[in-house]
Amino acid sequence: MVRLYTNDVSIGYGERFIVKELSVSIPDHKITTIIGPNGCGKSTLLKAITRIIPHQSGAVLLDGENIAKENTKELAKKMAILPQTPESAAGLTVGELVSYGRFPYQKGFGRLSKKDYEAIDWALEVTGTIDFKYRPVDALSGGQRQRVWIAMALAQETDIIFLDEPTTYLDMAHQLEVLELLQKLNREQGRTIVMVLHDLNQAARFADYLIALKDGEVVKAGNCEEVINHEVLKKVFHIDAEIGRDPRTNKPMCVTYNLLRGEEKDEEAVNTLYAASGTRN
């Protein structure tokens, strides 16, 4: 089932297009991860889908409706986003920060209702941050802060959560902590998770569906078997990858790789050009 998809979306800054006539579908109740080299349009696509930035052409549709025409508060009840570098929470307690997730439901003078407080405590419980409720956000570790930001997104009570590189600046243990939390939210609550990740093996381990981007275009979209393979990684990252199996999940994983250089890289580019034009047998 697909509730959210883009139809020939082009996104740019000024006269420079980052994403070009892109059509992607986000499977419902699954974890979708977007991968690709720096500058390929991953974060730009996330921002356009969540209406943080406008798109120049095409459409983003949720439940058959163009999000460009949606009321902002109503859209915020359907999707939440955790940006790559969340705004500073200086001076706020954890509970105060998470309460911001209730903004779409507030009326009048913006006072929190009993239901709001229940949603806040629930989000803190689910993310394991309830013990930090009255502590300053600045006093927490990186992993704890990231869980608090996720709690704020959960307090919005949306079916779809977007995260732009949620493991950035975290050590290995805290990266795993955050990804396991997102997997738990997906499996136990059916949340649709869409995130950008740089680590290919983390993407393969936690994603149900992968979208590989390069130069603002989809090179391959599908399950881990279809995307994490030698040919796709060669096209997307210009690497010669050795693919093995994760002994714990049996999913494909990148064991090691070399950069494509000189003639190898030139030959790969020529093959891509011929394939696109259909002039090589």
Task: Describe what this molecule looks like in 3D.
The chain is α/β, with parallel strands linked by helices. The chain has 2 domains: 2-78 and 158-277, Rossmann fold; 89-157, no CATH class. The protein has helices spanning 42-49, 72-76, 94-99, 114-126, 142-155, 172-189, 200-206, 224-227, 230-237, 262-277; strands at residues 2-13, 16-22, 25-27, 31-35, 57-62, 65-66, 79-82, 160-164, 192-196, 209-214, 217-222, 239-245, 252-259. The strands form 3 sheets. It has a 6-stranded mixed beta sheet with strand order 7-8-9-4-10-11, with helices on both faces. Strands 1, 2, 3, 5 and 6 form a 5-stranded antiparallel beta sheet that branches. A two-stranded antiparallel sheet has the order 12-13. The protein is globular and about 60 Å long. It is found in: Cell membrane. GO terms for molecular function: ATP binding; ATP hydrolysis activity. It holds the Pfam family ABC_tran. InterPro entries: AAA+_ATPase (IPR003593), ABC_transporter-like_ATP-bd (IPR003439), ABC_transporter-like_CS (IPR017871), P-loop_NTPase (IPR027417), Siderophore_ABC-ATPase (IPR051535). Keywords: ATP-binding, Cell membrane, Ion transport, Iron, Iron transport, Membrane, Nucleotide-binding, Transport.
